[in-house]
# Entry
Amino acid sequence: MDKKVRVRYAPSPTGFLHIGNAQSALFNYLFACHFDGTMVLRIEDTDTKRNVENGEASQRDNLHWLGIDWDEGPNKPNPKYAPYRQSERNAQGIYHKYIQELLDKGIAYKDYTTEEELKEMRERQRANKEAPHYDGRWYGKSEEEQKAAEAKGLKPTIRFHFPKNHDYEWDDIARGHVSFNSDNLGGDFIIEKSDGMPTYNFAVVVDDHSMDITHVLRGADHISNTPKQIAIYEALGWEHPTFCHIPLIFNPKTGKKLSKRDKDTLQFISEYKRHGYLHEAIFNFIAFLGWSPKGEREIYSKDELIKVYDPDRMSKAPAYFDQKKLDWMNGQYIKQMDIDELTKRTMELVAEGETDEAKRLQSIPEDQLEDLLKKTLGVHQRDVEKLLEVMQYAWDYYNVLNQEFDYDQILAKDGFTKEDVTAVLQNLRAKIAEGRTDYAAAIKEVGKETGIKGRYLWFPLNFAFTGAISAPQIYQIMDIYGEQTNLALLDRMIDALK
# Structure
């Protein structure tokens, strides 16, 4: 890289951090870190009507949870580039200065077309089967005509005038050479709204130029905005940054772009957090949405991804959101993580209380809950894919005496008799009543003393303690319950068999 790399992630606080946002933020972060550059967080909050409460805070908090940080932003201002919110920059007149420059050059002009007139224009174009476009009716109008419109109380927008038959071209990191002709861009476009707010396509150019942004990595849905932005760069005599349009994320079931209507996919990063996905796994998974390193390996730490990141390996094709792969990847991270750390993270989810599973566990005293979760993880660490499953298992174990088991199922299986099942249960009960706490050894002795082995020994115990034929190591579950609960569960099944 010839210049010191400066990239930016510039969300609008019109919603919370979703998968598409996170993908853009993550690739900017990897790019900046790999090339020892600077990542800027800029808040594009000019669409005041759509801004939501806590939208900016959600972006920041969830980026931090993912492991993404920035070098400059509202909370880390560099005096050379601050402020980092577009509303504050607009209040300082940063944008209008350049609007006026374009007006003075005759490249921009005031447009007094009313909403009714624009609607009529669109309807006429539709009837004539024309592509929708602004017809430039106010371009070149005299000052007298403008004053007459203002005398009627009309407030103008400011439009940028496209030259005829002009090509806007760039070499895109992900998509190669891209070109748009000015005649196919929908006509002259608004750069300042009637309320004095700059539009996205204008403000982003001024911000990227004044903040010395060298590379713009963003979703491929912005590709139609890029020629308009290049037009502004050219009109102001500025060099545009290098663009990289990241592949959009598609739903493999519909073959369409992932949308909020796709109810089978969690949309927001906060949802992944509350469902017990590990931030390391989400980071790893998103990094593979539109990019891949060399080789077949799929599990990478953040530091490893930064090291191997190569922007030339960005894909042109859409990225497909594979839920099974994400769940598998999260399960791999759970398997590798220290149980104490997993317990701590699960406790944090319980404290936040954002799921029914978490709210239920809040009724358990903290010390008791921590022990319960640690032992539950000891049983299930290798078979769960989300910490939400751990919370559900923990509640089931805590609440086991309030669950009903269908004990007749065990006798319906081939080779199981009431006498043998009862013998196993009674023999183990006697050992527990004697104070035996090495449950694995006690079960082994039951097998020797009764002569009952294999499935005929283990299935009845699985059923007594979990209500299911198949269970993890049953002696670990017995350790979760403790002596009194173990005795109660054995008594309950023995009584049912009588």
